[in-house]
Amino acid sequence: MAADKFAASPLASPQSGWLRVAALASAKIRTGLQNVRSIRLQISGPQKFMIVSLLIIAGVMTVTSFSQSTFYRQAIIKQESAVISEMVKAFLFEQETEDMLSPWDLQNYSESIAKTHFEHSFGPFINLHGVARVKVFNLDKMIVWSDEPRLIGISMSRNREDLTRAIAGEVRAVFNAQLGADPIETLPQTPLVEFYVPFSLSASGAPSNTVNGVLSIYRSSEELNQTIQRGLYLLWASTGLGGLILYVALSRLFHSVYFSHRKMESQFANLSANRERLMHIEKLSAMGQMVSEVAHQLNNPLVGVVNLAELAERELDNPQRVRELLREVRKAGIQCRDFVQRMLRITTVSDFQPQLTDMNRLAHETIIFFQQSLGGRPPVIFEGPDQPVFLKVDPLLIRNALFNLIHNAAQADPTGSVVVSLALDEQENVTGYRLTVSDSGPGLMPDVAAKIFTPFFTTRPEGTGLGLSIAQYIAARHGGNISAENNSGGGARFTIWLPG
């Protein structure tokens, strides 16, 4: 029964075993991928730069070394070809002056005298160091003489194109690594270089640069390859040293720039944090100042209300006196209510609804409203362009700011005139318009000008000190600014600049 139960268990089935193995393998694969991702994410910026720059420099070195090695190899072979060509010219010139070689020999190579001339003229080349085979071709690409007699009289060349170019007057050099594979070419199985050297025989009466035949010399390339290899080793060593110096210089430069940048980022982050901390402190300070001013503005009337109420309690037997005291209490309450309402009006500034507005018309309407409020005194003069000036502003907020500026100008000199002007003005390469309100009052004292836009700062006992600070906020909401300065002829001038 126990065996039957074990056989019936799903864990004992072959399918479940394979599933467990697959699950374990999948878990290991996921773990491996996570490790690869973690390693990839752990690579820092300098490490990435070092890896990428190393790969780039290695690639550039490889391409440069390959191209330079090819050029170096060709230059060595060309130089060797030139040396052999000059040697052949000098030797054949000597043979030709001794009447041991002529163009007739190349055409009648089967004659015994021609064979004698060839043996005397070209035989010494076989004794040169490293020479394995010598062949002489005529212009018909026929082998007219060779140190291997079996080759004479046949047209055989593995590099017919190079032979053709040699007949045209060009010295050619070809690497032939498998010459021994031909049964006739009984040459050793060693790397060879075949030089095709054209030669001219001036006794033919033709110009000296006319080719009469081609001398083919097979030389061992062992010494040549050793020379080339030593040159390549030197080339690779110098290129590798240059790449290493470049890599070290780039690494130091990158580390210097990278860590300087990180240091600047750290300093900037610290400055930003300190600036935010200072701004937070300034906000708390401004809020504390505002709360203090609000408390001060409300405390005086409330103290009066308390005192008046205590007096009224003592004068309950005198109704007339109680009515007088209650009248004073009501005045103090109205004063507190008016102050609270003025504070509430500040919240309306946050409602910003810009629209395309004619500034000329807005200024005229504000001036008319102000004059109707004060009975036309003092006079307000408007100076602006004849054409309409349209700006995208919130007309309610701009009208409120302009009204406050005109009202302050009128209070600075109730008997003088107020001038409102609108003119084109450019600030920091941005085109805009300035809305200026000038008065003929006493002007701004230096201590007053420094705090003129501070909330709750006022030089009038009945003022709240909120008008100019609200005007400054309105200008900032429009992307502009407000400034205050004294006129050269007396009085003060307040200017709101708005972008066009």
Descriptive key words:
500 residues; alpha+beta; Beta-Lactamase; Heat Shock Protein 90; five-stranded mixed β-sheet; 12 helices; 12 strands; 57% helix; rod-shaped
Counted beta strands: 12
Q: Pairing-aware structural class of the strands and helices? A: alpha+beta
Find the CATH superfamily of the domain at 60-220.
Answer: PAS domain
What Rg, in angstroms, do the CA atoms define? Answer: 54 Å
The strand line-up of the biggest sheet is 2-1-5-4-3
End-to-end separation in angstroms reads 97 Å
Principal-axes geometry comes out as rod-shaped
Summed over residues and divided by their number, the pLDDT gives a mean of 77
Proportion of residues in helical segments: 55-70%
CATH class of the domain at 60-220: Alpha Beta
At the third CATH level, what is the topology name of the domain at 60-220? Answer: Beta-Lactamase
Which runs of at least 5 residues are low in confidence (pLDDT < 50)? 1-15, 177-182
CATH architecture of the domain at 60-220: 2-Layer Sandwich
Largest sheet entry: 5 strands, antiparallel
- Per DSSP, the total helix count is 12
Strand content: 15-25%
Order of helices and strands: HHHHHEEHEEEHHEHEEHEEHHEE
